[in-house]
Design brief:
By secondary structure, the chain is mainly alpha-helical. The chain is built from four helices and two strands, in the order αααββα. It has a two-stranded antiparallel sheet.
Length: 122
């Protein structure tokens, strides 16, 4: 397939917004197709190389780093936590076990044993 080269003159000749949008959509779709073809080709080559060395494709997951930073997501992430600590001077102030400690808890920890602030101990 012959490559068509777009010159600055070709681009400058485009003066109809719907035509420009259509061209952008076609080019984006083609770009996605080419990327998929390249990825498939590279993956096929990598698998052939692994098999030639006596390794299976299951090793790919070990070779490619995961997208996370290695930390596992908490099982209870997003679940509202029950209050764990309570201000003995104002029972409406409570705090959970996870996350940043509220200012009232930080100031009480300086003078009080944190165990005494647990709700189960009050």
């Amino acid at each position: 397939m012959a490559k068509k080269q777009f010159t600055d003159k070709d681009v400058a000749a485009l003066d109809n917004i719907p035509e420009i949008d259509e061209l952008i959509n076609k080019l984006t779709a083609r770009k996605d197709e080419v990327e998929a073809e390249i990825k498939d080709s590279v993956l096929g080559s990598v698998i052939e190389l692994l098999e030639a060395k006596g390794l299976g494709r299951e090793i790919l997951s070990e070779l490619v780093p995961s997208s996370t930073d290695g930390r596992k997501k908490r099982v209870d992430s997003g679940v509202k936590q029950e209050p764990y600590y309570r201000d003995p001077n104002d029972h409406s102030k409570t705090a959970g076990k996870r996350g940043r400690k509220p200012a009232w808890l930080v100031s009480l920890i300086e003078t009080t044993d944190i165990e005494a602030l647990k709700i189960e101990n009050q």
